[in-house]
Amino acid sequence: MNKQGRTTHVEAGLEHQDLFPIREVSRLTGVNPVTLRAWERRYGLIQPTRTDSGHRLYSQADVDDIRRILGWLERGVAVSKVGSILARGQAHLQDMLPAGCAARWQAQLREAVQRFDAGSLDRLFDKVFATISQDQVFAEVFMPVWHDLAAGQGAFGQTSEWLFLDQFLRARVFSRLQLTRLPRRRSVLVAPLPGQCMELELLVTGLLLCSDDVGATLLMPGQPLDELAVVCGRLKPDALVLFSNHAPTAELSKRLNRLAVGLDCPLLLAGEAGEMAQESLAGSPVACLGAEGDLMRRRLRQYLAGQLDT
Q1: Which of 65, 188, 296, 297 has a Cα-to-Cα distance from 209 of 20 to 30 A?
Q2: Is the pLDDT of residue 59 over 80?
């Protein structure tokens, strides 16, 4: 057996054990032990268990959290801010789903993806959609696994698994978006911030923003920010919603303010950027919708009705 085959075999065996020592977690995630200890001691981002002799042992959930942390750091979020994002997602999960429910579905999802089993994915997607709300489907089951696979693409075979899941979800979300194309009283144009969004994230955001009285039209990644005023002038949306999960910068705030001045409709910011930019954009022409589905829809309705200040 070649070296690559031996490595893959060892990792597969380790991932089915209950707990991992720190050296294996470092190898699986690419995060060195010094950084793992700092994330624990200084920021409280992970809390491994300890053996009687004091050695750290990490669960699969800890490994998943480490990959989520890496994902947020790659988006430019400061490590000191990552904890609040993870805590918000965990609190939302505990409030809305029976204990262990999301974890079981995520495990089934991972198993189907590892087998490249499209039939099982179809059945699981339909089952989850029939059981819980649309917001929960994405926030608590499918998107966490999608993010974990995206963050862990250094592992052999994981890029192929992520691409398989990404293609499946894009097709299913796009189909559901087609069902929302009936005329609505209000319409919003949803666009990504350049270089800060993948197609699936944008599709899911567009779907979550739709409601009985608000429809969404999406502009795909690659849309130039400077040309949005032209597009809005022709489509006449009730609002332009920009999406990003990356940490906002001072330069971004300036660009958004300049864009807002040239628009004939309100400018709104959604995603984690919309959660983190509320203070920096306070008093500006840009309103922040947040990152959770129900919150985004509620703030969007309030803003379109003139009940939400920027």
Answers
A1: 65
A2: yes
Name which of 230, 235, 272, 231 is nearest 252 in CA terms. Answer: 272
Contact 33, 22 (CB under 8 A): yes
The answer for residues whose C-beta is within 8 angstroms of residue 46's C-beta and 6 or more apart is: 36, 39, 40, 58, 62, 65, 66, 69
Pairwise CA distance, residues 260 & 151, whole Å: 33
Set out the domains of the chain in order of their start, with CATH numbers: 183-304 (3.40.50.280)
Q: What is the pLDDT averaged over residues 252-261? A: 89
Q: Which of 74-78, 87-91, 240-244, 245-249 has the lowest mean pLDDT?
A: 87-91
Calculate the alpha carbon distances from 110 to 21, 116, 141, 219 in Å: 22, 10, 10, 30
Backbone angles phi, psi at 106, to 5 degrees: -60, -40
In angstroms, rounded to a whole number, what is the distance separating the alpha carbons of residues 212 and 185? 9
Interatomic CA distance for residues 129 and 267, integer angstroms:
31
Distance of alpha carbon 287 from alpha carbon 208, whole angstroms: 18
Amino acid 220 reads M
Q: What angle do CA 256, 279, 35 make, to 5 degrees?
A: 100
